[in-house]
Amino acid sequence: MSEIAVVAISVAKPGYEEQLRQVLEGLVGPTRKEQGALQYDLHRDVQEPRRFVFVERWESREALAAHAQSAHITAYRKAVADWVEHAEVRVVSKIV
């Protein structure tokens, strides 16, 4: 298995910042308990408070794929569909 990292960004539509924040915070506990989850930290952009950033580390692509299909992530996508202006997920590998 090869460890991978993820940077996942969600930008709330104006007026939905706090609702999105609460839902994102709710993902942390269940995700940290998933098999293969090494790191799952939620951040908020200091200069753009509508932008939330997850910094994640996973044991493998398979663990990440299972996470993407988990019940709490599926429910999250449905719950916030109208609150998110932009979402982006980047899978990266560490160089140094």
TrEMBL record:
Supply the Pfam families for this chain.
Answer: ABM
Write out the GO MF terms.
catalytic activity
InterPro entries registered for this protein in UniProt: ABM_dom, AI-2_Isomerase_LsrG, Dimeric_a/b-barrel
Q: Which domain of life is it from?
A: Bacteria
Q: Where is the ABM domain?
A: 4-93
- Specify the protein name: ABM domain-containing protein
Gene source species: Paraburkholderia xenovorans (strain LB400)
